[in-house]
Amino acid sequence: MLRVGLTGGIGCGKSITAEYFISLGVPAIDADEISRYLVEPDKPAYGQVVKLFGREILRDNNEIDRTKLRTIIFDDARQRVKLESILHPLIREEMERRIIELDYPYVILMIPLLVETGQIDMVDKIIVVDLPEHLQIQRTAGRDEMTVAEVESVLRAQADSQTRKATADYIIDNSQDLEYLYKQIEALHESLFDLGINQQTDTLTAVARELPKPPARPPSNESASLPPKKPVPRSEVVMPASATKKNVVMNANNTNEREPKAATGEVIYELPLNERIRSFIRLENLFKEIEHSLKGDNVWDSRSAVHGVITLLNVFARPDLKNDLLKEVERINVKLNAFTEVSGVDEGYLQNVQNELAQLTKGFYGIDGQLGGRLKHNEFLASIKQRETIPGGTFSVDLPYYGYWLSKDAEERKENILQWLSEFDLVKRAVNLIMELIRESATPISEIAYAGYYQKTLDTNQSYQLVRVILPNGYHYYPEISGGRHRFTARFLHAIDFGKPTQLDQTINFRLACCSL
């Protein structure tokens, strides 16, 4: 499930924004509501807060007077930090518990102090509701029975608008009327829904690649084991192994697909650790499907390829995809700069990779508008796209023009499809290079899952993008991988006749790569 943090300064309109998301069917979890719950009598934080601030913060009915408490913490930053040290771990724990119970493409996490308290790692995307400071003061003083001085005190304790917006993936301007606010939310909802579609909490995201049949028995630990790479000085990342091979040359203009490496007789399952890498893997596989369809000459191959092109158009309708690709290309280039003076690195390989990254960056900056924008005006594809949602709606009964096109010579159809695909060449080059570098940034090592269960905590000082579990092919079990940036688990499940899988109660040897670049 995609986690979307919703934040903003006091009086910016976070609540009304969240309420409209909820009216659209989006689940939302409010950190403030959880905070109020936690300090109720007999609730987890009540005793600690009373012990810290004394009984003078209590009303006659022994409930905590939130107005008194607010005055104390905004007048004394040290007291505010002490209160946050009690509440924030408990709030986070409760939010995680509620997220697990949800089933929707994305969830709104309402966290007013998301930036100030360093909880950015808890979310995948950030929405900042923004409002000029004078309007914040005006709306809050009128709404909450606070004086202007009290509102200004709260503002001083919060991050300023520029700091908050610098962390944002999306900014909602709430300085105008409700109609303007709602239009922004509706457009954002469509984008976030597409980003989060098919993503579920604790659900396997596996990309399996079938290879030749393995040996008759599993390899032993010794034969499966490969030594981990030696840490590289002055950098937290590991350069792809191929960077040390003097005979490797990468053509910066090469658009050929780079297949992920796997030993003969193995199946690879992958868990992306952020939404950006998840999107890139989906794109990678879409390109593969289309290329496979183009190898055939019959009309069904052409139909499959056209369907793939239309699916790409739907994906590229996301306004943030180009920005995500550009950010990832630039991020990797910065990481690779650390290797320019590292001993043992193939300088020619490194230079070729950086040249390709530079060309990709230049290419993305040169695109005006959305990716694949010119194909949006292709009437032929638009007519097919319109009918694709109708079962059987793309046959000649409804689309005679499509039937005519399918009757053409196979080479002519392929030529048309390749011309359409050329709109996505830059994206394909970027996705292939990004995923190759990430996958090759870690050497698989031998691991053991006891009673079919494995858990690993990741080093928070490293930026992990991908987990890869590698198994010999031909076995009747597979890993269900789930987790996030800091920890993941793999449950090895036994599937019989496509019934409900059950967890294995035995020791499993496998290879693991935690990719960080």
Describe the structure.
A hairpin with a 3-residue loop joins β10 (477-483) and β11. This protein is 44% helix and 15% strand. By secondary structure, it is an alpha/beta fold. The protein contains 18 helices and 13 strands. The chain is globular and about 85 Å long. It folds into 2 domains: 2-196, Rossmann fold, CATH 3.40.50; 221-516, YacF-like (Orthogonal Bundle), CATH 1.10.3900.10. The chain has helices spanning 14-23, 31-38, 46-53, 66-75, 77-100, 133-143, 148-157, 161-166, 178-196, 221-224, 275-294, 299-316, 321-337, 347-365, 379-387, 400-406, 410-421, 425-439, and strands spanning 2-7, 28-30, 106-110, 125-130, 170-173, 266-272, 445-449, 453-457, 464-472, 477-483, 487-494, 502-503, 508-516. Strands 2-3-1-4-5 form a 5-stranded parallel β-sheet, sandwiched between helices. The protein has a 4-stranded antiparallel β-sheet with strand order 6-9-13-7. The relative contact order is 0.11. The longest helix has 24 residues, at 77-100.
Briefly, what is this?
The protein is 44% helix and 15% strand. The protein is an alpha/beta fold and 517 residues long. The chain folds into 2 domains: 2-196, Rossmann fold (3-Layer(aba) Sandwich), CATH 3.40.50; 221-516, YacF-like.
Instruction: List how many beta strands DSSP finds.
Output: 13
Q: Classify the fold: give the CATH topology of the largest domain.
A: YacF-like
Q: Calculate the terminal CA-CA distance, rounded to whole Å.
A: 24 Å
For the CA atoms, what is the radius of gyration? 27 Å
- Average of pLDDT: 77
Count of structural domains: 2
Instruction: Work out the strand percent.
Output: 5-15%
CATH superfamily name of the largest domain? YacF-like
| Percent in helix | 40-55%
Low-confidence stretches: 198-263
What spatial form do the alpha-carbon principal axes imply? globular
Largest sheet, described in full?
Answer: 5 strands, parallel
SS-based structural class?
alpha/beta
